[in-house]
């Protein structure tokens, strides 16, 4: 995401990246990622009064959908407060409902490109280059591949808490970036996420892999 942040900053925007705390941490679950994302959002919105567009990629749709509770600009303006989340962008991302697990949303078993290890409590990606960066220039793909680390099994099996992307505050403010050449989350899976969410999304289709950088 560093390249995206650079591009946004060059365009005059401030960009913040929050890493996942379920990476290389077998004892952490989705809830730990919810807290991590929520802390950044509350810093920007409540303490700094900033307007925020939240971009969630892939698994981040799980914790991000929970962490946004009560932080929309519409809700905050109604109580006389400054700042808030203006809108949501999900890129090839999961759109969970309360009670969903990551494993359930990928069909109930691990994908062929995933390698779960009960002994370490982590799930690794067998071939990140092909799975995530198949259409990315070799130098960028190599750099990104070096940053890939395993994720906790708990993050796949912990049910989501209540989600808030469907609140009226985000009507006409939800965008889903659909990656048509995705080898990690195939287009039919992304379609199912959108249709199953029960919310209306603006769909933009990108002729790219899962992580086009």
Radius of gyration (Å): 17 Å
Q: Which strands sit side by side, in order, in the main sheet?
A: 1-2-6-7
Summed over residues and divided by their number, the pLDDT gives a mean of: 95
Helix content: 25-40%
Helix-strand makeup class: alpha/beta
How far is the first residue's CA from the last residue's CA?
Answer: 7 Å
Please indicate the percent range of residues in DSSP E strands (runs of 2 or more).
15-25%
Q: What does the largest sheet look like?
A: 4 strands, parallel
What spatial form do the alpha-carbon principal axes imply? globular
- Strand segment tally: 7
Task: Provide key terms for this protein.
213 residues; alpha/beta; 4-stranded parallel sheet
Which helices and strands appear, and what pairs or packs with what?
Elements: H1 2-10, H2 30-47, E1 51-57, H3 61-67, H4 73-78, E2 84-91, H5 102-105, E3 114-117, E4 122-125, H6 128-133, H7 138-145, E5 151-152, H8 154-157, E6 174-179, H9 187-197, E7 202-206
Parallel strand pairs: 1-2, 2-6, 6-7
Antiparallel strand pairs: 3-4, 4-5
Helix pairs in contact: 2-3
């Amino acid at each position: 995401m560093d390249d995206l942040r650079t591009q946004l900053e060059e365009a005059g925007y401030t960009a913040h990246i929050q890493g996942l705390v379920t990476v290389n941490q077998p004892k952490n679950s989705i809830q730990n990622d919810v807290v991590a994302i929520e802390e950044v959002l509350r810093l920007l919105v409540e303490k700094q009064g900033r307007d925020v567009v939240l971009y969630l990629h892939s698994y981040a749709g799980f914790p991000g959908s929970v962490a946004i509770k009560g932080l929309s600009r519409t809700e905050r303006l109604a109580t006389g407060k400054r700042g808030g989340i203006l809108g949501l962008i999900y890129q090839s991302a999961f759109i969970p409902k309360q009670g969903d697990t990551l494993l359930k949303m990928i069909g109930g078993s691990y994908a062929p490109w995933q390698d779960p290890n009960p002994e370490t409590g982590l799930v690794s990606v067998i071939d990140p280059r092909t799975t995530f960066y198949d259409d990315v220039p070799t130098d960028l793909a190599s750099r990104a591949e070096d940053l890939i680390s395993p994720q906790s099994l708990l993050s796949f099996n912990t049910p989501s808490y209540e989600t808030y992307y469907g609140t009226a505050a985000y009507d006409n403010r939800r965008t889903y970036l659909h990656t048509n050449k995705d080898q990690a989350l195939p287009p039919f899976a992304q379609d199912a996420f959108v249709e199953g969410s029960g919310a209306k999304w603006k769909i933009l289709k990108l002729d790219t892999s899962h992580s086009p950088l």
